[in-house]
Amino acid sequence: MIIITGAAGFISSCLVQKLNDEGYYDLILVDDFSDEKQNKNFEGKRFSKLVDRSEFIPWLTANHLHVQFVFHLGARTDTTEFDYALLNELNLEYSKDVWNCCVEFGLPLIYASSAATYGLGENGYEDDESKINLLKPLNPYGESKNEFDKWALQQERKPYFWAGLKFFNVYGPNEYHKGRMASVIFHTYNQIRDTGKMKLFKSHRPDFNDGEQMRDFVFVKDVTEVLYFLMHHRKDAGIYNLGSGKARTFYDLAAATFKATGKEPDISFIPTPEDIRDKYQYFTEAKMDKLHSIGYHKPFHTLEEGVHDYVTNYLIPNKYL
């Protein structure tokens, strides 16, 4: 059996599809399944059992002999969440419980970290474990992820294989339920569909023109390829970046989305909301040398390729992966 937490969510549900495509069907899906709007993310997929998040640790304790791998991708991912107690419970303490079970039962583990741990990038975007204590996340979500990374590295007892993946700006099918936290591609497509136009945030820094703020956008299909690779690799444990390795502008993203819909770009700019303006990242770019050094060499989709696939095969036909 393979366990996937956060299975009703975005990346996890795409991983379920990837595993199905590769012939893996004995999957245990873990989540809070009370959110009906997410549950269609695993409709039509093959799996063995749904386990509620609150019951997972006792379930794993009772069934660990049958488990081959654990993907712990579930988390509270809202970067505007300021309930520290909730983030501590779901992103830190729960992850410690999963880690400790994997240690006790000899199970390999991949867990989701985040590029939000890098903050404004004062210390760069290199997945150098010696620099993790120096990082300054910009929000409580990023802090919770960084705290777990630090905790994991401090443990004397670790799973025989483990990897913490710092996801950059992931986009693709099955993210419709994320609201404000969904990718800019998702919001761009909806604005174009509804108004024929797109509004991007103005720059509030003199060194960046409007629309030229840059992010490392990574297609979810590339993310699941890396997850699948690491499931088989099972060595070279540690913390890894997972992005495309190439920063692109928001203007490029919007233009690619217009092109995928067959429309001419009509892009304007609005002020960045004040509640996020002071903590807004103007540049992120994953350094991917570490992942490449352990043997992962598949090419990533370009922004244009990924946007075209997402828009034409999923958003326009209103399909899910």
From TrEMBL:
It catalyses: ADP-D-glycero-beta-D-manno-heptose = ADP-L-glycero-beta-D-manno-heptose. Pathway: Nucleotide-sugar biosynthesis; ADP-L-glycero-beta-D-manno-heptose biosynthesis; ADP-L-glycero-beta-D-manno-heptose from D-glycero-beta-D-manno-heptose 7-phosphate: step 4/4. Gene3D superfamilies: NAD(P)-binding Rossmann-like Domain, UDP-galactose 4-epimerase, domain 1. Its EC number is 5.1.3.20. Residues 2-243 form the NAD-dependent epimerase/dehydratase domain. The active site is at Y141, K178. Its cofactor is NADP(+). Keywords: Carbohydrate metabolism, Isomerase, NADP. NADP(+) binds at F10, I11, D31, D32, Q38, R53, L73, G74, A75, R76, T77, K145, V170, K178. Substrate binds at N169, R180, H187, F201, K202, S203, H204, R215, Y280. It holds the Pfam family Epimerase. GO terms for molecular function: ADP-glyceromanno-heptose 6-epimerase activity; NADP binding. Catalyzes the interconversion between ADP-D-glycero-beta-D-manno-heptose and ADP-L-glycero-beta-D-manno-heptose via an epimerization at carbon 6 of the heptose. Contains a large N-terminal NADP-binding domain, and a smaller C-terminal substrate-binding domain. Belongs to the NAD(P)-dependent epimerase/dehydratase family. HldD subfamily. Homopentamer. This is ADP-L-glycero-D-manno-heptose-6-epimerase. It comes from Arcticibacter tournemirensis.
